[in-house]
TrEMBL record:
Signal peptide per UniProt: none
Cell location: Cell membrane
Classification via InterPro entries: P-loop_NTPase, T4SS-coupling_protein, TraG-D_C
Protein source organism: Streptomyces colonosanans
Domain called TraD/TraG TraM recognition site: residue spans: 419-537
Chain ranges passing through the membrane: 14-34, 74-96
Protein name per the record: TraD/TraG TraM recognition site domain-containing protein
Repressor among keywords: no
Alphabetic keyword roster: Cell membrane, Membrane, Transmembrane, Transmembrane helix
Membrane-topology annotation of the record: Multi-pass membrane protein
Entries under Gene3D superfamilies matching the protein: P-loop containing nucleotide triphosphate hydrolases
Amino acid sequence: MPGNASNSTDGYDIVFRLLLGVLAVFVPLSHLAWLSGNVTSYLTGHVWAPYQPTTALLHPAQLWPQAGEASLLIGARIVPVAALLALGAAVGLLWIRHKSSGGGRKKKIVGMAKARDIEPLMAKAITDKARSLRPSLKNAKRIDPKDTGVLLGNIQGTRHEVRMGYEDVAVAIMAPRSGKTTSLAIPSILNAPGPVLLTSNKAAGDAYTATIDARSTVGRVWSMDPQQIAHAAREMWWNPLADAKTLDGAGRLAGHFLAASVDASQQGDFWSKAGSNILSQLFLAAALDDRPITDVMQWLAFPADRTPLDILRDHGFTAVAAQLKGTVEGPPETRDGIYETARQYAAALLNSEIAAWVTPQKGVPEFKPAEFVTSADTLYLLSKDGGGGASALIAACADSVMRAATAQAERAGGRLDPPMLAILDEAANVCKISDLPDLYSHLGSRGIIPITILQSYRQGQKVWGDAGMDAMWSASTIKVIGSGIDDPDFADKLSRLIGDHDVETTSTSHSESGKSTSVSMRQERILAADAIRALPKGTALCFATGMRAAMLDLRPWYLEPGSDELSAASARASKAITTRAVAKHAPAQDDFGPAA
């Protein structure tokens, strides 16, 4: 008996579905027949029939008795069927395109944040916040969106823009070719209301070429390219010893050379610390005597040179002089090991091409961080991966700019207005500022907005150690996670941060008394670790302090208004880099023609 009841129920279901299918075809087809038949009748000079779609489909001659058989066949049969088939094909094609090109990406995930969940990052709240943070906007009737914050993207599947405010600090972890440059770095630079700092290890086809033309219309463009990534002409020099006239400042400068050469796990050993200490003492001596940084390499080559000792004593740094003397007069094998370690850290200064960027150059303007932070200028700091001492200079310059911005903010009442944007792209390769995690705790409150872009969480751990990277992650008020997260532990950590949601489970059982259905609830991850790993390009997760995680559709610059002009400018800048590279490496010419 139970089996018969089940078969009977299944039969009813099949009949019901067939009936729905017939209606789904018959209703639109009959209306198309009535409309097409009337159009045909009108075109042939006859009257418009009353609204009777069923009769039009089944008995068209009753509605249009004066029409010929050919007209009825075409108007009430062929045209409606063709129109229905075309409509079905169009719907099917749109569905296939939706599923293949964007359906999966646009599909909303149950449990992720909606607009109301991240209201502080929405247009109204972020605009109100901008008025309170920036005195220059307090009485403005209308505020341009770019003056309110950095655009991160849209809430997935909607037009709701999500922005980080000009008091937020951010970390973005995005794999190569996942949109970190096209959707985050470039749009942020193009729309920045104040000074912009960018670190990068690429030039052609990257943020450098895409923004340099546009930013040159806003303010002056400074490019520091010691390893000739963009083959830029040397139109600036910067004095790294300007901030090294105190023991703390000299120690910070030496720390940049240490961080660029040694991973965080090795910076605590004897030779690393001793080499860094010698560098800081010699940097201090050179700065106090207004010497170029290259003099330090001469002192390292000849430890017996008493010049730095005399300078330190003359300026009252007797304790530092005593420490330096103790090292110089210590056991030769120890002294030689310490000095050789310091030489390795600062070896890039032996390269005259690199040293020219950080020593006075006749007719070349000096870049001064204190003036930069009050302007609308742009500073591009370029260095190759593993640049050693060259990347140390990049990190030192970026650090000097952020410290100058902090000092200016304090003089201005606490905050920069307009704020300064610091895009630290490839930070783990070319901008290893050792205490950057500590700086994150107060930069945002000064109107200094850092966005540190990494390829993976482990990359940050390698540079700043586990504790340092955890500190930066915790201090970041905005965290953006793009596609390409292949670290299972980190993916699981993100999955747990996103949380769980209730899933309704329905179960059906059959018994002699009939069919019964029960509903129960269970907890399920909103986004499992494997789903985070499989995030499609063009999407990103956004974690904001005190708010639910949101899924974003990124906004690449090349899909925004005005992208054609920017693309053309980027192409010109990339071509100019190629031209300069070819000219630089072309065979030398002499009176007898090209060199062999």
